Amino acid sequence: MFLIKTWRSVAFGLYGYKNFTKSGFMEHSKNFKPEDMQVQIEGKNCIVTGANSGIGYATAEGLASRGANVYMVCRNKERGEAALSEIQSATGNKNVFLEVCDISSISDVKSFASRFSSKDVPIHVLVNNAGLLENKRLITSEGYEMNFAVNVLGTYTLTQLMLPLLEKAAPDARVITVSSGGMYTVPLMEDLQFSGDKFDGVVQYARNKRVQVALTEKWADMYKDKGICFYSMHPGWAETPGVATSLPSFSKSLSGKLRTSEEGADTVIWLALQPKEKLVSGGFYFDRAEASKHLPFAGTKGSHAAIDSIDDTLKTLSGL
Ligand SMILES: NC(=O)c1ccc[n+]([C@@H]2O[C@H](COP(=O)([O-])OP(=O)(O)OC[C@H]3O[C@@H](n4cnc5c(N)ncnc54)[C@H](OP(=O)(O)O)[C@@H]3O)[C@@H](O)[C@H]2O)c1
């Protein structure tokens, strides 16, 4: 087990340094087709969680600049209002709205979903971007480990509760979940809240991000006949407020080599704009292409079989 863990970390570090940094983006962008992004989506309704900062902000701005109606879900009203007004003035799009919701709280997610559902608008794109890497074991007021509460349980609850509105936009509805390349370092595990003594936020975050990828596969299969498609993606390594706060040494050591938030958001926006026939529901994307969900010889492949049991646990915990 020690050897395989070491191999995963080494393989991730080497693969990441070559591909996830800014130079990786530059290299991959040689294959990008500019026309893929020259798409207007007026009239489409998009929800972006964690839209006041980093990749979520760049995603909301990118969608607003293409004419979409954008609902920015942010946990802090002041930060959300500031981002909203910046996006409105940068894009000239007044159909950008703020929804305040703390994704770490199931009750808050439920009250947001019920408020929002009363608008009865079809949702064409749900971007599950809100996420965090909390290094300490923090417990939410509802009793859940904080990384898990935001990255998995809140994201799961929101997605489930948005399904009726997504169905209204079918067959053009899609859910894009922003995972992380960090998930390559771990298999899918049923221990969702890191029960061991030596809490490691980086490992817990990676486990959460693996759950997102496996859940995306499960959702794609469950809702394949409903006209809703599901994609997970990873943005590479981008210089954002989240990375600076949670991974200060990583951020410093790769200073000047990290992607911008816009480069991190590029594949999210690309996934929102492409015709569905070009995409694979349940797929994991990176730099505008489907990517492997597993590193070679990492022994993580078989682990996705645990997703049914994890799905049952999430159903129970969310009370859905
Ligand atoms: N940057 C990277 O290199 C990288 C790499 C892999 C994956 N990702 C993923 O990309 C996504 C965006 O991260 P980022 O790097 O852009 O970090 P960021 O700048 O910290 O943005 C994260 C966003 O999520 C919000 N958020 C956090 N907890 C929330 C909660 N409980 N309720 C509602 N919103 C919440 C934050 O709000 P506040 O501003 O209020 O905190 C912020 O708007 C995350 O899912 C992250 O895991 C990033």
UniProtKB/TrEMBL annotation:
On the tree of life, the source organism's domain of life is Eukaryota
Q: What is the lineage of its organism?
A: Eukaryota, Viridiplantae, Streptophyta, Embryophyta, Tracheophyta
Q: Which Gene3D superfamilies match?
A: NAD(P)-binding Rossmann-like Domain (3.40.50.720)
Q: Which Pfam families match?
A: adh_short (PF00106)
- InterPro entries for this protein: NAD(P)-bd_dom_sf, SDR_fam, SDR_member_12
This protein is called: Dehydrogenase/reductase SDR family member 12
